Amino acid sequence: MRILIVVLSLLLSVPTMAQKGKKRSQNRKAAVDKEKPTAEQLMFENMLTSTRQLMIIDSIIVNKNDFLSRIPLPSECGALSGNEHGASFQNDFINKKYFSKRDTAGVSKIYTADCLAGQWTKPQELSTLGNADYPFLMADGTTLYFAAKGEMSLGGYDIFVTRYDADNGSLLEPQNIGLPFNSFANDYLYAEDEIDSLAWLVTDRNQSEGKVCIYTLVPNTHNTYDASKYSKDALIGLASISSIKDTWENKSERDAAIKRLKALNKGIEKNNKEDVVYFVVNDRVTYTSISQFKSSTNMREFRKLQSLTKEIENNYKTLEDLRDKFSSAGMSVQRRMSEDIIALERRVREQEKERRSIEKSIRNTENLLTK
To answer: Which stretches are annotated as coiled coil (predicted)?
Structure first.
């Protein structure tokens, strides 16, 4: 009887032991699955050794809703703007623009249009870019940076680049521009000023809700960090922009870049003041901003008109000074001054005639476009 009880006990314990063994096996499998890296983490690892070597000279935290207006992009590099419907880039000739807007499903798409004879063409969707936003076109007119979400993104929006292939009239396959431009957070915009050798990266990494950080940097399209000279943790720090001070390897280069940035900001401040204009189109319409002109040609013509007006004012001042000095000058000096005065008076008359002609041309065109 005792033998029977022992046998039964052993038989009953086998399922329990099997269950415990199965549970331990499941726990080990869960631990392995938990440690398995995600596709995004694997992508980061693959990008790490190709981290671009940048010098970030400044950073500022701003509201996400208006960061486009906080980038000091010179007019020669185009213009960035945005509203609740999407972001927009317009080139310096004001004859080409890229902009984003959402479709009925709420997916952001990028479109392009050209200005021909003062009128914008029907927007064309750049369908190959996918769920994309925040376009920026380089001065070469072919290189387009933008932000996009998708399988090739580390997380949220990543910065991509594509180029226009003139041979087949289409855009090349977009490429993720890698680290440190992109992160597991949202990276919205990359814009570059080739004239001043400055660039801007906008990201919400390590930021609170509704905020973004604008990094000002010295662009570098080729050099990457030598991975053999850094520990993995140090390289991850550079790839993640853990500290902008870690990028300050060359003090003189950084000082020169800061000087360029200050000069750029000063120049933009001056241009913004000049953008406040007063131009009467007709009895009902008066422009007070350069952006109000309907024709891109007229925008350029008005800039020309401003320069011409300033030159005329300077010539009038010079004439006034010459006339003041004329009365007290000797006979021989007066003869020379008389020739200078007559020549300058003739020049001013020609300039006044040209100014009236430009004003009339601008006014006529704008009246046609405002009807």
So the answer is: 302-368
DSSP 121: P
How many angstroms separate the CA atoms of 145 and 256, rounded? 26
pTM to 2 decimal places: 0.69
CB 239 within 8 A of CB 65: no
Q: Which residues pair with 96 in a beta bridge?
A: 114
User: Which stretches of the chain are DSSP H helices?
Assistant: 2-35, 39-48, 232-239, 251-274, 296-326, 331-369
Beta 187-193 vs 175-176: how paired, if at all?
unpaired
Considering the domain boundaries, does residue 101 fall inside one? yes
Question: Nearest to residue 66, comparing CAs of 177, 198, 192, 202?
Answer: 202
Residue 124 dihedral angles phi and psi, to the nearest 5°: -115, 130
pLDDT digits (tens, 9 = 90+) for 77-124: 999 998 778 899 999 888 899 999 998 888 999 999 998 877 789 999
212-250 residue pLDDT tens: 999 999 998 678 999 999 999 999 999 999 999 999 989
Helix (H, G, I), strand (E, B) or coil at 147: strand
Q: Is residue 158 part of a domain?
A: yes
Q: Is residue 6 part of a domain?
A: no
- Same domain flag for 87 and 129: yes
Closest to 291 measured CA to CA, from 130, 140, 90: 90
Residue 28 binned pLDDT confidence (cut-offs 50, 70, 90)? low
